[in-house]
Design a protein that fits this description.
single chain, alpha+beta, two-stranded antiparallel ribbon
């Protein structure tokens, strides 16, 4: 199985009862377990998103009919922000022929294959048509998400310099242990953009910065 096909999320907690049109929100407990209390799109933790009241159940493919649209495999946990941005968006036939589509993290690897993080700005960069579409339609470069990814990087760098060697291995001072608990609830580490793609972005940013203000 290639890295692009291997899913990021594997569902294991399926509800026993049929999911109804009005009761699809009741599957939240199963989704929370399968997705580790994180948004399927931004990977923001429920705790960081503002709690359960700020999380919603998204219908991944809103075009599906009758029972199919309520199938557990079509339901994803999403922050109110990502669900509101995605809404009922779906690429048309012409766009799909160009490879434009949403990435299904239960069927494939999204981060590290289609989407990478810019190490300079902590923006997400889609390097494929589907990656770019996914980032744009889910608004994954909203200010609060960029700020969290940037803060996460700084905290992990601090933690990397904090460990001290003890008899049986590595440990952390108590303040660092508390910091580690905080950072583990933040958006997980995302593979960085590198090589030619990163070089091109740096050149573009430098050129844009040199433009006179109107």
């Amino acid at each position: 199985m290639s890295s692009s096909i291997k899913p990021r999320i594997v569902r294991k907690n399926f509800p026993k009862n049929r999911i109804t049109r009005t009761g699809f929100r009741k599957v939240w407990a199963y989704l929370a377990l399968d997705f580790e209390h994180r948004c399927a799109y931004s990977m923001q933790h429920t705790y960081r998103a503002g709690g359960r009241k700020c999380m919603e159940v998204d219908h991944f493919d809103p075009r599906k009919k009758r029972d199919a649209v309520q199938d557990y495999n079509n339901l994803f946990p999403a922050t109110r922000h990502c669900n509101g941005a995605k809404r009922n968006s779906w690429p048309n036939a012409k766009d799909q022929r160009r490879g434009i589509r949403f990435l299904n993290c239960c069927d494939e690897t999204d981060y590290g294959v289609h989407i990478f993080e810019d190490p300079d700005t902590h923006e997400l960069v889609g390097i494929t048509p589907e990656g770019r579409y996914h980032v744009r339609c889910c608004d994954l470069n909203a200010k609060h998400l960029i700020e969290e990814r940037s803060e996460r990087h700084k905290l992990w760098e601090l933690l990397r310099t904090q460990p001290v060697k003890i008899k049986s291995g590595w440990s952390l001072p108590l303040p660092a242990q508390a910091m580690k608990q905080v950072v583990e609830r933040m958006i997980p580490i995302i593979p960085w953009l590198s090589g030619k793609d990163l070089a091109q972005r740096r050149v573009l940013r430098k050129a844009m910065a040199a433009l006179p203000l109107l």
